[in-house]
């Protein structure tokens, strides 16, 4: 059986009559004459030539690969971000390496080292850590990093996110406008996740502006997880003086809270009103339809890719940029208007 050898750059030379230097320049992303570009592309198609990315990377010092690190691939929120990031990178002919940090700072640091060894051109990170030490290898090597959804407090990196504190303030204000005064919150605490804590501060801002004191029993702070949302909602529903409304600060917490409500036999909004975060699958499946804060996930992902590719293309600005996008509140039927 005769084995067909893969086409080489010399085959393209024979087919086009162009020099190896011209063909190599085109294959490595350089500019060539339009008519030469047409001839090379036609030869590539006819010969089924495939670029040796490893060899090209040795020449250009670029792999056309971006590493994306998320805190958990189990999270539907992260899965949606990955979908949009992947689409945006594909349009620019970049590959993607996905790493799952499993909500563990140690694994997150290992992921950064892994991607450095893979010679990625840049990274987009949805971090677990609150401190920036885990990104030091990338910083030392000059590998650009863009943070998405979550910022870090002790160092400056480019970041794309929403204004979490203001968004939470607006969400709780909607509950207040519907005459709710006994409003509980289920959110991340300062030790676990800064984004969630910012949303908690927005909740407190709204309650303080309304002149309301928040009982400790209404403050359920911990981790952004389904389990914590479910446990916290169970506890709130058992209170002798039950809240009339609950604000949940991320998708997993919202899902867990809905599960707890369903198992309790109580009804929303007749027994308790609910306002959640991230309009993913949940709000379209449960009845009544949930009132949800909606983040511009597609736009955030695409902007993160744009900023990163600008860095890779040596268009980096002197100072890191922070892009803050607006979220909206999708109206549903899960918030009742109280008469008194």
Report on the architecture of this protein.
44% of the residues lie in helices and 16% in strands. The protein has three domains: 9-60, 434 Repressor (Amino-terminal Domain) (Orthogonal Bundle); 65-161 and 297-325, Rossmann fold; 164-295, Response regulator (Rossmann fold, 3-Layer(aba) Sandwich), CATH 3.40.50.2300. The radius of gyration is 25 Å and the shape is elongated. With 340 residues, it is of the alpha/beta class. It contains 13 helices and twelve strands. α1 (9-16) packs across α3 and α5 (76-91) crosses α13. It has helices at 9-16, 20-27, 34-47, 53-60, 76-91, 105-117, 136-141, 164-177, 194-209, 226-238, 251-264, 282-285, 297-312; strands at residues 65-70, 95-100, 122-125, 145-148, 158-162, 183-188, 219-222, 245-248, 273-277, 291-294, 322-325, 328-330.
């Amino acid at each position: 059986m005769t084995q067909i050898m893969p086409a080489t750059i010399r085959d393209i030379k024979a087919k086009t009559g162009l020099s190896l230097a011209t063909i190599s320049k085109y294959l490595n992303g350089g500019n060539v004459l339009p008519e030469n570009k047409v001839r090379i592309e036609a030869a590539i198609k006819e010969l089924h030539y495939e670029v040796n990315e490893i060899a090209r990377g040795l020449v250009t010092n670029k792999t056309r690969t971006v590493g994306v690190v998320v805190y958990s691939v189990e999270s539907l929120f992260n899965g949606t971000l990955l979908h949009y990031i992947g689409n945006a990178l594909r349009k620019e002919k970049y590959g993607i390496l996905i790493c799952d940090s499993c909500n563990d700072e140690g694994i997150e640091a290992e992921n950064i080292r892994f991607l450095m060894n893979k010679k990625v051109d840049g990274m987009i990170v949805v971090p677990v850590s609150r401190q920036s030490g885990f990104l030091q290898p990338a910083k030392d090597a000059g590998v650009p990093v863009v943070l998405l959804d979550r910022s870090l407090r002790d160092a400056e990196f480019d970041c794309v996110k929403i204004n979490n504190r203001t968004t939470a303030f607006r969400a709780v204000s909607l509950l207040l406008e519907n005459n709710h005064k006994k409003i509980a919150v289920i959110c991340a605490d300062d030790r676990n996740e800064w984004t969630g804590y910012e949303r908690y501060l927005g909740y407190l801002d709204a309650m303080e502006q309304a002149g309301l004191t928040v009982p400790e029993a209404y403050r359920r702070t911990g981790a952004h997880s389904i389990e914590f949302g479910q446990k916290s909602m169970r506890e709130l529903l058992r209170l002798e003086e039950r809240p009339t409304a609950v604000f949940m600060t991320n998708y997993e917490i919202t899902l867990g809270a809905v599960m707890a409500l369903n198992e309790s036999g109580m009804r929303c909004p007749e027994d308790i009103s609910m306002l959640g975060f991230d309009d993913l699958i949940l709000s379209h499946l449960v009845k009544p339809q949930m009132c949800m804060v909606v983040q511009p996930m597609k736009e955030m992902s695409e902007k993160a890719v744009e900023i990163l590719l600008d860095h890779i293309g040596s268009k980096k600005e002197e100072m890191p940029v922070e892009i803050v996008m607006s979220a909206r509140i999708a109206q549903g039927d899960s918030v009742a208007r109280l008469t008194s």
